[in-house]
Design a protein that fits this description.
Layout lengths: L2 H23 L2 H22 L3 H5 L8
Amino acid sequence: MSEHHDTVKHTLDFMAAIAAISSFLQILTPVFGLIGAVWTLMRIAEMISGKQFFELIGRKKDNAE
C-alpha cells in the first residue's frame, strides 16, 4: 500500500474506535446534538444579518497610529 492509503486507513481506524467507545458510553448523540445546535444558531445569525458568519465574528483592527 502507498503511504497515503496507510494514513487514510489509520485515520478511519481511529475514528471507528472513537465512535465505538462513544456509542458505548452514550456520548456521541449529545455531541452531534450540540454541533447541530451551534450550526443552526450560526445559520440563523447569517439569515438575520445577511452576512457570512465569519464576517460577523471577524474583528477589524483599527489603523490608528
